[in-house]
Amino acid sequence: MNHDVRGGYTVSDMAPEDVQEARAVMLRSVAEDFGCDYDPAIHADIDDLLGWYSGPDGQFMLVVKDDASGRVVATGGIRGGALKEGLSPEHLVERYRDGRTGQIVRVYVLREERRRGIARAVVEAILDRAQAEGRYDRIVFHTFLHSPGAVAFWTSMGASLIEDDTDGISNAMFYEFDGLPGRVDATTP
User: What pLDDT does residue 5 have?
Assistant: First the structure.
């Protein structure tokens, strides 16, 4: 799967040779955008990207490469929607354990590559693939108020705020897409 992005970028499946660069993009983004250090309780998937994002269960990781240099400039993926207990509101942990919920994760674009449509392209590629594979009925994710431009971006993508937990256990805002594009959400009568 390859998607061209305007301006000389390509979205593709993460290959084994992309893992180190993808990991570097993720860790740099965590430090720069969230102002926090690596935490194995929260970032364990970053240590084993192929283990977490390959296999038959609908999970995958995409990378965006600069066509001129071949370097990874962005990432984004999806995995089963189960949230980590003790780090998220318990009712959402339970809601997303259904096996038909996909959680968009690790959507990061290097600061110097932003404002070029890269994040939009990777999220559209995630949603397109999730729809084509038919694994998930609901797509969810969380973001943080301190993530530059995140709330405006996700709202512009058509996501709906489900819960504002910025003063709670997660310090996050939880969103859902109202079904996959072209599909009826499983909760819709």
Answer: 67
Question: What does the block give as tokens for 42?
Answer: 């929260």
What is the spatial distance between Cα 147 and Cα 106, in angstroms, rounded to a whole number? 12
Tens digits of residue pLDDT in 29-66: 988 988 888 888 788 899 999 999 998 888 999 999 99
The span from the CA of 86 to the CA of 93, in Å, is 9
Q: What are phi and psi of 30, to 5 degrees?
A: -60, -45
User: One-letter amino acid identity for 113?
Assistant: E
Burial 116-147 (b: 16+ CB within 10 A, else e): bebbebbbbbbbbbbbeeebbbbbbbbbeeeb
Beta strands across the sheet bearing 2-5: 2-5, 9-13, 60-66, 72-80, 101-109, 138-143, 172-177, 159-165
**Residues with Cβ within 8 Å of residue 56, at least 6 apart in sequence:** none
- Nearest-Å Rg of the Cα atoms of the chain is 16
Gap between the Cα atoms of 150 and 173, Å rounded: 10
pTM: 0.88
Question: Mind listing the pLDDT tens digit for each residue in 127-158?
Answer: 999 999 988 989 999 998 888 789 999 999 99
- From CA 104, how far away is CA 141, in angstroms rounded? 5
